[in-house]
Amino acid sequence: MQLKRKFETGEFAILAEMEPPKGVDVSTMVTNARRVKGNVDAFVVPEMSNAVMRMSSLGGAVILQKEGMEAVSQLNCRDRNRIAIQADLLAAYGCGITSVMAVTGEEPGYGDHHQARSVYDIDLLELLRATQALQEGKDMAGIELAGAPRFLVGSTVDAGAKGKSPELVIEEMNQKVDAGATFFVTPPLFDLAAIQPFIQRVDLGKIKIIPTVLLLKSLGMARYIQRNVEHVDIPDALLKRIQKSPDKVRECLRIASEMAKTLQQEGFGGVLLATIGWEHKLPEIIERM
Amino acid sequence: MIVADRKPVEEIIEEVKDHDKILILGCNECVTVCEAGGKKEVAVLASVLRMHFLNQGQTVRIDERTLQRQCDHEYLEEVRDIIDQYNAVVSLACGVGVQFMAEKYHATPVYPGVNTVFMGVTEERGLWTERCQGCGECILARTGGICPISRCAKRVLNGPCGGSTKGSCEIHKDVVCAWQLIVERLKALDRFDDYEKLSALKDWSTDRAGGPRKVVREDLQDESKDT
To answer: Which residues of A144-167 are buried (b: 16+ CB within 10 A; e: fewer)?
Structure first.
């Protein structure tokens, strides 16, 4: 509820991505989350991002909430049909999850189960509409529910993505807003200028835009992203800054903190800190913010 | 063959209502065999549309043409000289033909005149049933020539699922249990021992799971370049 409250009062929300384990040993996830418990408003638990099989988002989110930490559970369209998705939304609310994020999900070819058959029974907009319908007390078949969930609903927006027209991105986002989404997570952002054309057309007070601040782990990783990840742009100046630094990890942590701080100053609704495997570094990022 | 079914005429009228020069384009292959989009169906649809527009008091030119195929460049080229005379095409080919036509004649709207349903057979005139889903990894050698992917409601590979009754599928008594057929066929082939062999985990990456598919034959491509 902390997240909802922050969104409502207009305070800057700090979200952190917390991947559940590939296995059942949740101790690392819980320990990492506990370290920043007081400083993070909610943990976004990805639903098998990059199509890599691991503990489900719902499972991870329930575990974090049991530990007294707020979690945002993700639901993708790739792995479940409309029956299972709705069932999991009900289960999530029943287990105390009040924030969900609808995502499309990457193709199985990206992940570690290349031969899997993807589902995509419903798409992202339909998933959002289904969530909206459940909140109004009806399932997708129009049948009345015994008790309706109340969620804070989020989704993704390609804001600041390289090569995407801001008009098109806004159009897509507005469709999601109509379908009930109130907050939007962007792809990793390394340059405020990249998101400016989008932001100029959005009322940040009304729609909560949550840019992803991705922690770079090395110069190699930064260069790899710059060369191979089509929609993400890392400015040359940033690459040079990491290159020149004697302590590259520390520099990368600083870059993440600075970016988060800038976003707060620019009036964004919040930030999503993504540390992909380096969740133990979250305290260092947050304390410099 | 690819089996298609006729689209409701109201839907076609809705598609073309704002056009006044319409070409109804049939296909002489699969859709002719399943009596959904051949020369005869082109004539029927053209008549219905003419009557409709006449009743509406609209002057609409509706022409008929049927190509040998709509999934090959050479046949689609046959309408290049006349395509500019029309501001809409209703293609009665399968979805493949509609798309290839649209790709070729970029500036002319091409509307589908049939619903493409499946790859199947003519059991009898007026009855077509599904046989193949194009999964990209044919397992018919193991299943006695009967496909559990296309014919079993649950696509189970080590069936039956336990829901069948007297050889009928649990979804409907008119649907034959594919695994019942497989068992009977393996027995007839004296290969019932094969039924005990567990099927390997299905690789769906050759199906649509790996995204849109293509078949590349470099030997044939090279041959074409040489000639």
So the answer is: eeeeebebbbbbbbbbbbeebebe
Strand-strand pairing, B114-124 and B110-112: unpaired
pLDDT at A52 (0 to 100): 97
A chain contacts of residue B201, beta-carbon cutoff 8 Å: 115
B49 and B96 share one domain: yes
Q: Does A118 touch chain B (CB under 8 A)?
A: yes
Same domain membership, residue B103 and residue B6: yes
CB pair distance less than 8 Å for B201 and A107: no
Q: Which residues of B touch A (CB under 8 A)?
A: 201-205, 207, 209-211
Dihedral (C-alpha) B42, B47, B52, B54: value to the nearest 10 degrees? 130
Residue A1 pLDDT greater than 80, yes or no: no
Q: Which H/E stretch holds residue B155?
A: none
Q: What is the pLDDT of residues B167-212, one digit of tens each?
A: 999 999 999 999 999 999 999 999 999 898 898 899 999 998 778 9
pLDDT tens by residue, A74-109: 999 999 999 999 999 999 999 999 999 999 999 998
Chosen from A106, A112, A113, A117 to mutate, greatest number of chain B CBs within 10 A: A117
Any domain includes B152: yes
Whole-number pLDDT of residue B159: 84
Sequence-distant (6+) residues with CB within 8 A of B165 are: B173
Same domain assignment for residues B112 and B163:
no
- In terms of domains, do B109 and B142 share one? no
What are the chain A neighbours of B139 within 8 Å (beta carbons)?
A: none
User: In terms of CA atoms, which chain A residue is nearest residue B135?
Assistant: A117
Domain that holds residue B111: 2-118
Whether residue B164 is found in the same domain as residue B87: no
Residue spans per domain, chain A: 2-216+251-287
User: Inter-chain contact A118–B205, Cβ cutoff 8 Å?
Assistant: no
Q: Would you call A107 and B202 a contact, using CB atoms and an 8 Å cutoff?
A: no
ipTM: 0.83
Q: Return the CATH number of the domain spanning residue range A2-216+251-287.
A: 3.20.20.220
- The separation between the first and the last C-alpha atoms of chain B, rounded to the nearest angstrom, is 30
Pairing of strands B114-124, B127-132: antiparallel
Give yes or no for A106 touching B (CB within 8 A): no
Which residue of chain A comes nearest to B212, CA vs CA? A107
State the burial class of residue A130 (Cβ atoms within 10 Å of its Cβ: 0-12, 13-18, 19+). buried
Termini Cα distance of chain A: 23
A-chain residue closest to B210, CA distance: A109
